[in-house]
Backbone:
């Protein structure tokens, strides 16, 4: 499976059109070939960073199918007009490292981040391995995916997409932040006070309420 | 509600031979005031070799800080400057300025061990 994840930011004068844009984009995506799943929903009001207003997450059979969708007439004729004038931040990635939930989750969160160009590759691998410890030691993480970007768009490149699902947002704001695995181990790669610091401070953290599992 | 656990932050900086005084002064002048402003409490400052500075050898300087629980830890980590911007650039600038005087450094997070010592 290949995911095309985008966050859309409306210009200030169009904030009132949020739901109109969402309805229009959902309809536009319905005409795209090769889309297995499509989530278009408002960004949650809490615990987000540089996430904009709308989450748009499409799942395709493969990267080739995702590319074909973007080359289709429906992309030019329906999708691009639906998002015209919006700022787009996003990434495409193969869902290879993941664990799905058994259902019942109510909140999805993704952290998009990049490492400095000069980052030691051994530290980058260490960061990946240690990030996965969060999935093991925080039972409130009911589903997760940690994947490398095949492409990204927006102000900064994205290298990694770290997704989780929780029953509700308190799993993210409470246990996920309070676990010593986070502040005692993983955060060093994000912390300028630590010699392990390799993650660009420009993060995108997006949270959305979900009615069914997103990570599959 | 239980008291927040005490979290310790240990900086360990290995100064190049002859540079221990310069590292110590830079840390005191350019790091400690900001750290205290972020809510960190300086508990101890140690060194090795003990009690003497030997200019032919590297020296390791230790600073042990404490914060009140996870909330105190995130407060110092997510600190903001007076204008609301991220303080990470300032923190990074300090450590980068210190780097030419040092051989290596570590920062480790510590807690009490469970049970009786």
Residues:
């Amino acid at each position: 499976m290949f995911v095309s994840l985008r966050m859309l930011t409306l210009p200030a004068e169009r904030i009132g059109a949020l739901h109109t844009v969402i309805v229009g984009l959902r309809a536009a995506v319905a005409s795209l070939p090769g889309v297995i799943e499509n989530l278009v929903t408002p960004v949650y009001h809490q615990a987000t960073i540089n996430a904009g207003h709308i989450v748009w997450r499409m799942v395709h059979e493969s990267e080739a199918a995702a590319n074909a969708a973007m080359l289709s007439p429906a992309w030019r004729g329906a999708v691009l007009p639906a998002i015209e004038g919006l700022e787009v931040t996003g990434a495409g990635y193969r869902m290879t490292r993941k664990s799905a939930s058994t259902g019942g989750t109510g909140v999805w969160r993704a952290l998009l981040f990049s490492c400095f160009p000069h980052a030691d590759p051994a530290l980058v691998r260490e960061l990946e391995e240690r990030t996965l410890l969060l999935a093991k030691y925080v039972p409130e993480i009911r589903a997760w995916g940690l994947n490398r970007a095949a492409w990204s768009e927006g102000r900064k490149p994205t290298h990694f997409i770290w997704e989780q699902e929780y029953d509700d947002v308190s799993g993210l704001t409470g246990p996920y932040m309070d676990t010593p695995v986070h502040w005692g181990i993983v955060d060093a790669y994000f912390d300028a006070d630590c010699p392990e610091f390799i993650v660009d401070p420009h993060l995108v953290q997006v949270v959305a309420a979900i009615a069914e599992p997103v990570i599959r | 509600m239980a008291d927040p656990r005490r979290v310790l932050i240990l900086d360990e900086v290995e100064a190049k031979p002859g540079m221990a005084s310069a590292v110590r002064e830079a840390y005191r002048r350019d790091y400690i005031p900001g750290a205290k402003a972020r809510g960190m409490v300086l508990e101890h400052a140690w060194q090795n070799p003990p009690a003497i500075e030997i200019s032919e050898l590297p020296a390791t300087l230790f600073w042990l800080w404490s914060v009140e629980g996870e909330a105190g830890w995130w407060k110092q980590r997510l600190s903001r400057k007076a204008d609301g911007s991220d303080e990470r650039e300032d923190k990074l600038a300090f450590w980068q300025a210190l780097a030419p005087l040092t051989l290596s450094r570590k920062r480790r997070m510590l807690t009490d061990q469970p049970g009786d010592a």
Remarks:
- The longest helix of chain B spans residues 20-30.
- The beta strands of chain B are 6-15, 41-48, 59-68, 102-110.
